[in-house]
Amino acid sequence: MPTDEFTQARLHMVRIVAAYAEQTRAALPGGRLDERLLSAFARVPRHEFVPDELRPHAYADGPLPIGFDKTISQPFMAALMTGLLDVGADHNVLEVGTGLGYHAALLAALCRRVCTIEIIEELAAQARANLDRFGCESVESRIGDGSRGWPERAPFDRILVAAGAEEAPPALLDQLAPGGRMVIPLGPVESQLMTLVEKAEDGTLRATEIMPVRFAVLESYH
Ligand code: SAH
Questions:
Q1: From start to end of 38-169, where are the E strands?
Q2: Among 30-34, 46-50, 104-108, 155-159, where is mean pLDDT lowest?
Q3: Measuring CA to CA, which residue among 149, 189, 151 is closest to residue 169?
Q4: pLDDT, tens digit, for every residue of 29-42?
Q5: Mutate which of 172, 214, 215, 218 to test ligand 1's pocket (most atoms within 8 Å of Cβ)?
Q6: Residue 28 Cα, ligand 1 centroid: separation in angstroms?
Q7: Model confidence at 25: pLDDT above 90
Q8: What is the whole-number distance in angstroms between the Cα of residue 118 and the centre of ligand 1?
């Protein structure tokens, strides 16, 4: 597909994502996906963050397989999660589950620094190459079990978890800054709920369930 066709397809995807978001607006800060976020979606070339053979499908609003039984999230889901996070330009953001780096690139377009952790070495290496090609210098990536967070880079204003957990990992709650927000799919695999966890200035935690979702489980080293 020539570049301008990718661009057209991407702008179409942004319109679909914005329309879907209408249904979840009660949960979104400001009641909608804001312009900064939509403009980041319009700029980041999703087709450069998917396996080559899937490029023609990069702008369909669906998850795509990236190998190792993993997927990159549906664009609407990525938009919803990012909207719920309410990312500010000066934020230090942690992403758990880099995949091929698409969501990290989106976050990088919105904030000061992104730290992203991927447990599968091959995916982490491909993600790094994709992020470098796209010029995402503010994204620091590493291989590891992201459920333990990244203590050397904490505290984080925002934490995005791209895999489902029964409960919010305690290390991530610890590394969330006061006033911080974390978005994470929580609950048993068959009945996960996308959840927004907010930490008040006094450290009190509050969880808001947003919608039922189906994510692969957050793995750990044993
Ligand atoms: N953020 C990606 C989504 C990738 S899918 C996007 O752009 O849409 C979720 C990823 O989480 C998978 O690549 C999986 O390998 C990774 N993952 C699962 N458990 C993890 C863990 N404990 N630490 C880090 N990454 C993990």
A1: 64-67, 70-72, 92-96, 113-118, 139-143, 156-161
A2: 30-34
A3: 149
A4: 889 899 999 999 99
A5: 218
A6: 24
A7: no
A8: 6
Q: For position 220, what pLDDT does the model report?
A: 85
How far is Cα 202 from Cα 169, in angstroms, rounded to an integer?
A: 20
Among residues 13, 73, 25, the alpha carbon closest in space to that of 211 is found at 25
Residues with Cβ within 6 A of ligand 1? Answer: 70-73, 78, 96-99, 102-103, 117-120, 123, 145-147, 162-163, 218-220
Pocket probe mutation, ligand 1, options 70, 139, 142, 184, max atoms within 8 Å of Cβ:
70
Instruction: Indicate which residues carry an active-site annotation.
Output: 73
User: Across the chain, which distance is largest between two alpha carbons, in Å?
Assistant: 52
